[in-house]
């Protein structure tokens, strides 16, 4: 396997923003997007959920959309996510959604994002639905954590945050959050970040991942270990077994379309496993990050564009 570093990621994410590349992908990349995106509609996403549930893999449903630029768009996204939460209410499996705060207007007005989140959490708690706040790029980390704190102060416990091991600040963020006992998801981080704020070396990012996941678990936080990395999954299995941790204390999370066999295997071994299932028409930024994670994906997409 290739040793991926931030410079490959940065290059792909920069090229992806080029208007002609974007145009080509939007017009011809839809077939490829189906590797990672369940469909345009909620109904298509729910069919994927049924199929995964048959393998004891639970779902995290994510309506694609981010960085909105108007209050109207923010409210539209909130209405769509409410529809998602209500659709899940009727289902027998665990209810879980993910969203991004810039989808709810974080860049426009932090108070708007808080208000829209409160509406969602109010509806979600009627049906024991959990709402994960994804973490976005580094300029938005402070605001995201502030909104999370506001929601916790307002009494909402059915929500959690994400911490990224590539950011140099994250260990301090985790320490500062410990008194709140947040539900955390640990990831490596998917955005283009400069060396001032983020480690660029894969070994450092991986090492820091294990430090954060273990620290979260040692402090009794319910922890989602979100990675496809065999070394990380293997080490966390070993470590949690050695410590006698149970499936009530942690879970594994992977992305829809990535290492499906491993998802099944972990579930069959008795671990709690969730797959992150994006749906919706706003798939371009999500797909760009998936391509930036793995050179092979760039080859697949190039081939599918040529073949049409
Ligand atoms: P790494 O990138 O080292 O990959 C290890 C191996 O996994 C690869 O060798 C390959 O086999 C496989 N793999 C990884 N990515 C692949 C891909 N795209 N296609 C095919 N195979 C692939 N990030 C973020 O910044 N904020 C967030 O909120 C989230 N949320 C989130 C939720 C969940 C459930 C997951 C799994 C991931 C995220 N991420 C995220 C993304 C995360 O930051 C990271 O970019 C990816 O998970 C890839 O990193 P890995 O830990 O998988 O390791």
TrEMBL record:
InterPro entries: FAD-linked_oxidoreductase-like, PRODH_bac_arc, Proline_DH_dom, Proline_oxidase
Its EC number(s): 1.5.5.2
Positions of substrate binding: 100, 289-290
Listed GO biological process terms: L-proline catabolic process to L-glutamate
Cofactor: FAD
Reactions mediated catalytically: L-proline + a quinone = (S)-1-pyrroline-5-carboxylate + a quinol + H(+)
Protein name as it appears in the record: proline dehydrogenase
Lineage start: Bacteria, Thermotogati, Deinococcota, Deinococci, Thermales
């Amino acid at each position: 396997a290739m040793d991926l570093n931030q410079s490959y990621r940065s290059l792909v994410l920069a090229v992806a923003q080029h208007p002609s590349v974007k145009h080509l992908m939007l017009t011809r990349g839809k077939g490829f997007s189906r590797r990672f995106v369940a469909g345009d509609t909620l109904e298509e996403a729910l069919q994927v959920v049924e199929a995964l549930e048959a393998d004891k893999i639970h779902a995290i449903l994510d309506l694609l959309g981010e960085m909105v630029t108007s209050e109207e768009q923010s409210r539209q996204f909130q209405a769509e996510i409410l529809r998602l939460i209500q659709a899940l209410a009727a289902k027998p499996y665990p209810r879980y959604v993910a969203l991004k705060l810039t989808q709810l207007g974080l860049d426009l007005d932090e108070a708007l994002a808080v208000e829209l989140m409160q509406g969602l959490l109010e509806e979600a708690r009627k049906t024991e639905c959990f709402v994960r706040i994804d973490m976005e790029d580094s300029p938005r980390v402070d605001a995201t954590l502030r909104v999370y704190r506001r929601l916790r102060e307002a009494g909402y416990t059915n929500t959690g945050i994400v911490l990224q091991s590539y950011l140099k600040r994250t260990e301090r963020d985790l320490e500062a959050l410990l008194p709140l006992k947040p539900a955390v998801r640990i990831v490596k981080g998917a955005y283009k970040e400069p060396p001032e704020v983020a480690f660029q070396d894969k070994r450092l990012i991986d090492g820091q991942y294990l430090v954060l996941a273990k620290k979260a678990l040692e402090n009794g936080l319910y922890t989602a270990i979100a990675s496809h990395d065999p070394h990380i999954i293997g080490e966390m299995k070993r470590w949690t077994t050695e410590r006698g941790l149970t499936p009530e204390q942690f879970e594994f999370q992977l992305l829809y379309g990535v290492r499906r066999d491993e998802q099944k295997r972990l579930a069959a071994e008795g671990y709690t496993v969730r797959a992150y299932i994006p749906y919706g028409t706003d798939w371009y930024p999500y797909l760009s990050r998936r391509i930036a994670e793995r050179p092979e994906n760039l080859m697949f997409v190039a081939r599918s564009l040529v073949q049409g």
